[in-house]
Design goal:
- The structure is a single chain.
- By secondary structure, this protein is α/β, with parallel strands linked by helices.
- Helix content is 42%, strand content 19%.
- A 6-stranded parallel sheet has the order 2-1-3-4-5-11, with helices on both faces. A 6-stranded mixed sheet has the order 7-6-8-9-10-12, with helices on both faces.
- The relative contact order is 0.18.
- The N terminus is likely disordered.
Length: 322
């Protein structure tokens, strides 16, 4: 079941990405007009985000018929809103948003709609009225949390287990949905949550928060759920500095499936990793072309995510792209 994991991950997203690739417009065989796209990225908080940004820049390249205006908001919602206002003022053909947080989007999206500029959501969902955006392309965060929680329930859920949680950016869709999914899967088990704090999806904050957990709870901690690999990797340093062995004294389950995360898993420092595929660029670009061409698109496109134990991580690493 775990054979060819890396290849299957690529094929799973490829199957999604290929839909609509024959769209008209620049680069798609339907004309010579360059499509100007404003992309409001969250920031550069993690290895996952770097891979996602690279995927988007490659897909929205000049050779594919696009002019990309890129903005990274440094994980500040106000910066991202300002970037979208700027895109509207520049009169771009389409706007793509990977939202820092789920709330606060209605006004600026209404402004885009009034300007007849279509909005496509990438990676993260928002709470705004669905009529304000054309489509969303991303991963199922709630399912990722459920998969991670199911592993925890099966592995340690039958014995008293004390868990701490490193949450993602407060108010972000992955932080909210992964928490819900994980919680639903460990319901009725013997897993107790000692503490849960945001590590902002970064290694540095993951380390700092884990240091605080260890100072407060020490050897009482049996399990760490890190909502992304980078926070889990930061926590490794804190755990080792406390004289404990990650993967043994404290079991670790994380989400993303980056090379660094799978390396930690293959080394036995992580115990389980759920994938969140960042290579969304090709599919987002094809949806943008379809929307610009006036073609019908689905309201949501979900990438396929896998999950890895130690053996699967070792299998996947040689061909891992991110």
């Amino acid at each position: 079941m775990k054979k060819l994991v890396g290849a299957l991950a690529a094929l799973g997203l490829m199957a999604v990405a290929l839909t609509g690739c024959s769209a008209g417009g620049a680069g798609g065989g339907g004309g010579d007009k360059v499509i100007t796209v404003g992309f409001a990225q969250t920031g550069s908080e993690s290895g996952w985000r770097a891979a996602n940004t690279q995927s988007m820049k490659e897909a929205f390249s000049a050779k594919n018929g696009f002019k990309l205006i890129f903005n990274a908001a440094d994980n500040k919602p106000e910066n991202q809103i300002a970037a979208v206002h700027s895109f509207i003022n520049q009169g771009v053909d389409a706007i793509v948003i990977a939202a820092v947080v789920t709330t606060g989007w209605d006004d600026v999206l209404k402004e885009a709609k009034d300007a007849k500029i279509p909005v496509i959501l990438e990676d993260r969902t928002i709470d705004a009225d669905s009529s304000l955006y054309a489509s969303w392309i991303g991963d199922d965060f709630k399912k990722e949390g459920e998969t991670a929680g199911s592993w925890a329930a099966t592995t340690v859920g039958s014995t008293p287990t004390n868990m701490v949680v490193l949450e993602g950016t407060t108010g972000s869709a992955p932080a909210i949905d992964r928490a819900k999914g994980f919680s639903s899967s460990i319901g009725g088990t013997s897993i107790t949550t000692l503490d849960s704090q945001t590590g902002n999806f970064t290694r540095a904050d993951g380390k700092t928060v884990m240091e605080g957990f260890l100072q407060k709870y020490g050897k009482k901690i049996n399990l760490l759920f890190a909502q992304n690999d980078d926070m889990g990797l930061g926590a490794l340093d804190a755990i080792k500095s406390a004289g404990l062995t990650p993967g043994k004294d404290i079991k670790i389950v994380s989400i993303d499936g980056t090379k660094d995360g799978l390396t930690a898993l293959s080394n036995g420092e992580f115990n389980y990793v759920v994938e969140c595929n960042p290579l969304l660029g090709d599919k987002v670009a094809s949806v943008v072309k379809d929307v610009i061409a006036g073609k019908k698109v689905e309201k949501a496109y979900t990438a396929k995510d896998l999950a890895f134990d130690q053996a699967a991580a070792k299998e996947a690493l040689p061909t891992r792209k991110y």
